[in-house]
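Entry for the shared binder. Reason: the reviewer on the internal report wants the predicted structure included alongside the sequence.
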Amino acid sequence: MAENLTQIYLYTRYERFWHWFQAAMIVVLLITGFEVHGLFRLVGFDLAVRVHNFVGIAWLIAFAFFVFWVFTTGEWRQYVPTTQKMFAVVRYYAYGIFRGEAHPVPKRKDAKHNPLQRLVYLMLAATLLPVQMFSGFLYWGYNSWADWGLDWLSLEVLALVHMAGAFSILVFLVTHVYMTTTGHSIFAHTRAMITGWEGIEEGEVQDWERPVKPTCET
């Protein structure tokens, strides 16, 4: 099958950097966060807290730059949800992929995410990650709650929200790693996120929705 692939430059340098940088930060945050909550012992409570706080603040700052990049380059259009071919994509992942069927929504430079990915990534970037970052920031500033006028907050509830968010992100991470193995080869999607070049099978390049405005190269 690889002989019939057309290579297209799909992911910019910044997208690839952000993907791996954020993945590394999330893994570190999950490991240190779960250790802080006593699920296991790896580096010790004190060091886990310091590393978790430092990486958490770094993630917050980096995410702000990502949001700025998304809106200034027009890449926000990649996350606009659509119901077009949504059922076909769900059917493919639930049934068609195990029968060797072609993906119903081939990737394009101006449409990198299929309808299901758009919905999931939008919910992740606009809901789950902000809630996790905000709850983590409040957790970090616990000793300043009185000064901020937030002494009415419950630390137990905040901890529960933050931990629930962590497990949700873990579920997404595991699912995401699995989905990276569903390309034309087991490492095809991973290789694309390293090199930027994605292999599209001949005949797959087609418009599945009205094309969106081309985005800027970074």
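Summary line for the report: The chain has one domain: 2-201.
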